[in-house]
DNA sequence: GTACCATATGTCAGAACTGACATAAAGGAT
DNA sequence: ATCCTTTATGTCAGTTCTGACATATGGTAC
């Protein structure tokens, strides 16, 4: 079983979905911490079905093409339950923005500051979006969020990780940009004046 | 040019290194935000040389096998400078631990809490290691850290991102574990007593 | 009428990466 | 002697993922 397989099972444990629906979910909420294109999802569904983790039934529709709706089996649910408590195999972090920071000392300082300000915005916007979702969940799902055996608690938990992550990323970008500009507006005042 | 190519150039812009040295660096400091095995590094070095970004010279050694020491070229340095200020193409986040949290509502609560406590420790230890490095850098490199055109500033900047990341991860793991155990020691007191 | 869009399901070539296999020199341990 | 470890460089098969190609239905916009 691949991790993508468990991502799909995680969605199907909440509701029955078609391959197309799964693709949409992967762009939306679940896509915040796992993502996949339909070109990965359809073959994976076939493998899951072959392994007995899911089954499908064809649903005929009038106003749009027919679809295959997948549901999780008892075996699929059991596999998911067991996988969820196994410590993940530590996978190496790969963050291209941090890699760029590693070479920022060679770069044009003005362009570098602009780039990090831009990334700060990107992460800030994602954070704002998450905070909206959080407010909505806390208002709408109130009691469920205290129950770790509710799927809503689980969804909320993943959102909280997203919030911490984006906050950390945005603050770090701001610190990098400030550090670069702090230096420029200090010792390098003359060069800056000459340029503008 | 691949991202791995820029990771290698980032290291070679600081000092000349052999393929073996690069592999070691990828396990250590640089490995905190980008990593690669030697099976990726040797072919990539060949491609970089073919593209004119690096050159190598063979260094003969007595007490160990001969080695190829690579150095960055002017073209390589220029490519790196330009790449460093281009906003990264947003790549989807994939965090298996968060994916597990998404299905934690189905899991055995006791095992789940244990798993998240374990992950909290792992991140906590990595954080402690980073904090040690940070103290060392701040003591040893003091003045350089205020100069964004120093490679030491760049190294320090990446370390700071690592610290924020691990802190966020560890705190989130603790929150998840607390949430699960908070519930168990409350409403489910009886079940717990029966089990132990 | 035709061009585009959302829904719906699939395949395939190529890139990036992992883990195993392969070779070799020199030193240290048993 | 034999084995293990470190240094050193390489290949290769298989997995995961991306981006493009491919096809089909039915509604809406021009």
Structure notes:
The structure is a homodimer of 196-residue chains. Chain A has eight helices and three strands; from the N terminus they run αβααββααααα. Chain A folds into two domains: 3-84, Orthogonal Bundle (Arc Repressor Mutant, subunit A); 96-191. Chain A has a three-stranded antiparallel beta sheet. The first copy, chain A, has 196 residues and is mainly alpha-helical. Chains A and B meet through helix 1, helix 4, helix 5, helix 6 and helix 7 of A and helix 1, helix 4, helix 5, helix 6 and helix 7 of B.
Notable traits:
three-stranded antiparallel beta sheet; 8 helices; homodimer; DNA-binding; mainly alpha; 196 residues; Arc Repressor Mutant, subunit A
Brief write-up:
The structure is a homodimer of 196-residue chains. Chain A is mainly alpha-helical and 196 residues long. Chain A has eight helices and three strands.
Which structural category fits the helices and strands of chain A? Answer: mainly alpha
Number of helices of chain A: 8
Query: How many strands, which pairing sense, and closed or not: the largest β-sheet of chain A?
Result: 3 strands, antiparallel
Instruction: Report the C-alpha radius of gyration of chain A, rounded.
Output: 23 Å
The gross shape of chain A turns out to be elongated
Mean pLDDT score of chain A: 93
Query: What is the count of β-strands of chain A?
Result: 3
Helix fraction of chain A, binned, reads 55-70%
Question: In terms of per-residue confidence, which ranges of chain A show pLDDT below 50 for 5 or more consecutive residues?
Answer: 188-196
One letter per element, helices H and strands E, the order of chain A comes to: HEHHEEHHHHH
| Count of all domains of chain A | 2
């Amino acid at each position: 079983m691949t991790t993508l397989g468990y991502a799909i099972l995680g969605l199907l444990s909440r509701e029955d979905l078609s391959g197309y629906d799964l693709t949409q979910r992967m762009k939306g909420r679940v896509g915040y911490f796992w993502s996949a294109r339909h070109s990965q999802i359809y073959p994976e569904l076939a493998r899951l079905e072959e392994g007995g983790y899911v089954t499908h039934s064809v649903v005929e529709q009038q106003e749009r093409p027919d679809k295959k709706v997948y549901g999780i089996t008892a075996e699929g649910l059991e596999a998911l339950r067991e996988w969820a408590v196994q410590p993940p195999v530590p996978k190496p972090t790969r963050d291209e923005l941090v890699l760029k920071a590693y070479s920022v000392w060679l770069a044009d300082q003005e362009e570098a500051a602009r780039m990090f300000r831009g990334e700060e915005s990107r992460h800030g916007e994602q954070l704002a979006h998450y905070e909206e979702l959080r407010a909505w969940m806390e208002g709408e799902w109130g009691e469920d969020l205290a129950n770790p055996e509710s799927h809503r608690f689980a969804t909320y938990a993943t959102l909280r990780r997203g919030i911490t992550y984006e906050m950390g990323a945005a603050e770090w970008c701001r610190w990098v940009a400030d550090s670069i500009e702090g230096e420029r507006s200090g010792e390098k005042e003359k060069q800056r004046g000459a340029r503008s």
